[in-house]
Amino acid sequence: MRLENGTVKAEFLLLGFSDHPELQSLLLAVFFSIYSVTLMGNLGMILLITTSSHLHTPMYFFIGMLSFIDSCYSSVIAPKLLVDLISAEKTISYNGCAAQLYFFCSLVDTESFLLAAMAYDSLVEAICLLTVLLSYVCIIAAILRTGSAEARRKGFSTCASHLIVVTIYHGTLIFIYLRPSTDHSLDIDKVTSVFYTLIIPMLNPIIYSLRNKDVKNAFRKMIHQKLVS
């Protein structure tokens, strides 16, 4: 807290990476690059899904929503982080901190529910079942029970991207909250937080685009149309 114009102003001091001043410029360049790629990747995915009629399916609707959420919750953290790296006064107001925490937690919870919905949709699309349990174990078990090797390959191909995203997303959460207190390290917490808030939103559109023939074909078609026009 500090006194300003006769009133007490509550603020939090953001230490962040201030204990490594020699790395501030490098970190600024790295985080700015990551944030830029995150926005371009996710907004590009939204544009591609919106403009490509054959991507107007439930699964790509969910992927578009995932890209939108990733753009938002990365934007809740990254701009303030970048400002603090170049600012001498690394503080955040109480109201600002509360708002940041509210929006971040809300978006993370929304993404968790969205990933669960995508799991259900992936299972219905890949295995053609009418009713299933909303469980990632059931997805794998149902694929393994499929008769032919070709059907299993197609099922895993359909679900692989989603399972990779879920593993990275929830794996990071498990590491953060279930790590033994004896192994606690502030530096590891910082790196994990950066991975969770900046890296994962950047990886999601890359994973879904590189492993998805429909997305790659839609991208080539859009580029071809732009060049022709």
From TrEMBL:
Keyword Lipoprotein: no
Residue intervals passing through the bilayer: 26-48, 60-78, 123-144, 156-178, 193-210
Subcellular location per the Swiss-Prot or TrEMBL entry: Membrane
Superkingdom to which the source organism belongs: Eukaryota
Gene3D superfamilies xref list: Rhodopsin 7-helix transmembrane proteins
Molecular functions (GO terms): G protein-coupled receptor activity; olfactory receptor activity
Topology class, membrane: Multi-pass membrane protein
The keyword tRNA-binding is assigned to this record: no
Signal sequence region: none
Pfam families cross-referenced by the UniProt entry: 7tm_4
Stored PROSITE patterns: G_PROTEIN_RECEP_F1_2
Domain G-protein coupled receptors family 1 profile, chain residue ranges per copy: 41-124
GO cellular component terms, semicolon-separated: membrane
Entry keywords, A to Z: G-protein coupled receptor, Membrane, Olfaction, Receptor, Sensory transduction, Transducer, Transmembrane, Transmembrane helix
PANTHER family the record matches: OLFACTORY RECEPTOR (PTHR48018)
Name of the protein: Olfactory receptor 1019
Species whose genome carries this gene: Sciurus carolinensis (Eastern gray squirrel)
